[in-house]
Amino acid sequence: MSARLLPGGPVAASVLADVARRADALRARGVRPGLATVLVGDDEASAGYIRIKQKQAADLGFDSPHRHLPADAGQDDLLEVITGFNADESVHGVLVQYPIPGHLDYDAALQALDPDKDVDGMHPVNMGRLAVGLPGPLPCTPAGIEALLAHYEIPVAGREVVILGRGATLGRPLAMLLAQKRPTANAAVTVVHTGVGDWERYTRRAEILIAAAGVPGIVRPEHVRPGAVVIGAGVRYAGRRLLPDVDEACEQVASAITPRVGGVGPTTVAMLFRNAVAAAERATR
Ligand SMILES: Nc1nc2c(c(=O)[nH]1)N[C@@H](CN(C=O)c1ccc(C(=O)N[C@@H](CCC(=O)O)C(=O)O)cc1)CN2
């Protein structure tokens, strides 16, 4: 068997088309959506992602003020930039590009953000909203995965979804999202992690297996139930080289699978803009 591929590009395009319509409607009533970005240090990959986001912002007609702090900036410098954007009414969304230099505290920076401007959906208030089912910005990669499954009409409701990985940015919020009572979710979700000695006992049961461990090549064909849908969401980088969690050979066992490059990744950026346009709509209602 060779699995059907599930590229993220068409999913992202459809989300961004909706964002473009909503941004046009905002501008028609005099509101230009504003997405601010913050980069600390000289990480080449992060600078590249910021450029992608700024280009996308320009294409969608967003303002995108940017602050680049030097690698030796202090926590106070970072907090000053964040509180400045919090107070700026022309800025509806703010993101601090991850990673930041090791001497800085990312969680503290996140907590300094106005939760209503948190376009990454990672502020504890927004995680809490997700946990209790209140509306709010959703973490981008989990939201991208839900959108990808819906786009390819892969039924999720009532099915056995196993997530390998319990990280705060991916596995944990994704479990909350896919267990919610909505037509594109409503699954029987299990979260397992690599600290569980026999984690493959769980992954082999999955009708939909989502690899979110960040361990290159950890999911091999023998860990996959034949005919399962496999979503590769966890990645590591060696420099700029992408090292996915899912071994290529899983294509021979799965019925459908995300490509190793161009799978979940592109949906993450689209969801960022969906959160940003929603923040602008909320702030100017
Ligand atoms: N504040 C944030 N920081 C970071 C995030 C984030 O969502 N918010 N995510 C990553 C970086 N990132 C966006 O910022 C990002 C990374 C990768 C991709 C992507 O589409 N990757 C492609 C592969 C491209 C390649 O070959 O390298 C893919 O997965 O197919 C999009 C966004 C960390 N920081």
Automatic annotation (TrEMBL):
Sequence ranges assigned to domain Tetrahydrofolate dehydrogenase/cyclohydrolase NAD(P)-binding in this UniProt record: 139-283
Residues covered by the Tetrahydrofolate dehydrogenase/cyclohydrolase catalytic domain: 7-120
Subunit structure: Homodimer.
UniProt-listed Pfam families: THF_DHG_CYH (PF00763), THF_DHG_CYH_C (PF02882)
Superkingdom in the source lineage: Bacteria
Role this protein plays: Catalyzes the oxidation of 5,10-methylenetetrahydrofolate to 5,10-methenyltetrahydrofolate and then the hydrolysis of 5,10-methenyltetrahydrofolate to 10-formyltetrahydrofolate.
SUPFAM superfamilies: Aminoacid dehydrogenase-like, N-terminal domain, NAD(P)-binding Rossmann-fold domains
UniProt binding sites for NADP(+): 165-167, 235
Documented EC number(s): 1.5.1.5, 3.5.4.9
Protein name, as recorded: Bifunctional protein FolD
Keyword terms of this UniProt record: Amino-acid biosynthesis, Histidine biosynthesis, Hydrolase, Methionine biosynthesis, Multifunctional enzyme, NADP, One-carbon metabolism, Oxidoreductase, Purine biosynthesis
The protein's annotated pathway: One-carbon metabolism; tetrahydrofolate interconversion
Reactions performed catalytically: (6R)-5,10-methylene-5,6,7,8-tetrahydrofolate + NADP(+) = (6R)-5,10-methenyltetrahydrofolate + NADPH; (6R)-5,10-methenyltetrahydrofolate + H2O = (6R)-10-formyltetrahydrofolate + H(+)
Family of this protein: Belongs to the tetrahydrofolate dehydrogenase/cyclohydrolase family.
Keyword Amino-acid biosynthesis carried by entry: yes
